[in-house]
UniProtKB/TrEMBL annotation:
Subunit structure: Monomer.
PANTHER family assigned: THIAMINE-TRIPHOSPHATASE
Provenance organism: Amphiprion percula
Catalytic reaction equation(s): thiamine triphosphate + H2O = thiamine diphosphate + phosphate + H(+)
Subcellular location: Cytoplasm
Name recorded for this polypeptide: Thiamine-triphosphatase
Family, similarity comment: Belongs to the ThTPase family.
Superkingdom classification of source: Eukaryota
Class of the enzyme per the UniProt entry, highest EC level: hydrolase
Classification of source organism: Eukaryota, Metazoa, Chordata, Craniata, Vertebrata
Keyword Cytoplasm attributed: yes
Transmembrane segments: none
A GO MF term: thiamine triphosphate phosphatase activity
Swiss-Prot/TrEMBL keywords: Acetylation, Cytoplasm, Hydrolase, Magnesium, Metal-binding
Amino acid sequence: MSLFQMSVEVERKFLCSADTLKTLEEMGVSAGQRQFHDQYFDTPKFDLTLRDLWLRKRKGCWELKCPTATSNGTTELSGAQSHAAALCTRYKEITDLTEIHLRVKEVIKDSCEVRETETSSSEGEESWLSNMNLVCFAEFTTVRRSFTLEEDGVQIDLDQADFGYHVGEIEVLIPEGGDVMSALEKIRKTAQKLGLTGDQKVEGKMNVYLKRNHPEHYATLLSAHVL
């Protein structure tokens, strides 16, 4: 059992038009702009991503994004609420490296032989990646402009990836096991205020990156209903 309290990201992606940006600048508080470089890792057989697990290194820090149970906190959804939920994703982020090692090892031990070698602190990163047969399959840089809606606990990010894809995200962070319904409602109301009318789920950066650069990996995840 984890000793670390994990947060769950509930988010909806959207395509940002000039009108949407204008509305956002009027209603949100700008939290500035930053740039970050992401590297994503998996085994050659896609053992992690086929389970919707995303191992990422960002700005020198490791994160493992794991899907939450879709029924958690959303068992009594009305038609409209169910539709709103379908437009959103829910992931918990593990940032403790020891726990990340344990989770990854647990997933891949059945599909490939994990080399049982002691990793000294001097060997560090390259050693555990090699031991678990993990390789980088995606790498890109993102410029992110962020806005906060403080009264709602909502953050809105506008991302521009270096492979030519622009996408927005409406995000609410809740504790693991927290009120998903409330988060979904905040996102729905924010989308309404921004004038977002689309009822189709918008693709994230990774979907588009894989489709353009690794179509075989993309097709495998699509057929497994991960994407």
